[in-house]
Amino acid sequence: MNKPFYEQIAVIGTGMMGTSLALAIRKNGLCKTIIGIDKNFENLKAAKRLGAIDSYTDCLKDGIADAVLIIFAIPVLATFEVAKRIVYAVRKDAVITDIGSTKGELVHKMTGLFYGHSNYIGSHPITGTEKSGAINAVDSLYNGKKCIITPVEKTEQFAVDAIKKFWESIGSDIVVMDPYEHDRIMALVSHLPHVIAYALVGSVVEQQHAGSPVVKYAGGGLRDFTRIAGSDPVMWRDIFISNTREILAAIDQFSRTLERLRRMIQEKDMKGIHSFLENAKEVRRLLTDR
Questions:
Q1: What is the pTM of this model?
Q2: How many alpha carbons lie under 13 Å from residue 45 in its C-beta half-sphere?
């Protein structure tokens, strides 16, 4: 595959995800110049020290003026608000994408905003860690991971082809999906686990505040299960708000399943509990064997 080459790429947001992407772009030789744009100068300086970006600015219009690829790597609810400030400043031939974890409403609004001015297509690389900040960036974060792209009827085919080629060139496996179907699936496999992890931590904290010294007895099980509760609160706040309907449906489904297990425990249904646990173990095996 011939790798694309861009004269200039602008990465809006130089946290862990944005800086890792810039490092991957650099590692794969896809760009002459990478501009980092952020309000957080600590992240910008760290990204520059890591060699992820060539220069940086906190001025959006200056940063994107000559970019032929613009990548939003900021929380979902901020993306559209920031995009409104640059819509008339981007190059006509620029391709614009984002790496947000929700797509439905965002893709609808961003497509309408940029339609007729430039070319937007949504992306969601299925990767990340609970760590944040440019200092935690790694150049291999996107390699070998799925990246869902979400073109719609108004998306120009050349933009679809360009963004496919871009993600493939940094080692991602492309999946094309309807943006609303994306949100339904992510609510179950990604957003709900975070809801549960945060809720479990909240439950433990309540017990701790009530005087029960539960935290000092926590073992590996609680630490492993709640690891993702250490993720960026701003990012996950925005995900919960931007995908509310699907997340609430996922919570309701989980609540029904939890109630079924609760009933089996209450009734000391050994056969039912054993079958429930065996099924869960098999799903876990399938997940780890992928």
A1: 0.90
A2: 3
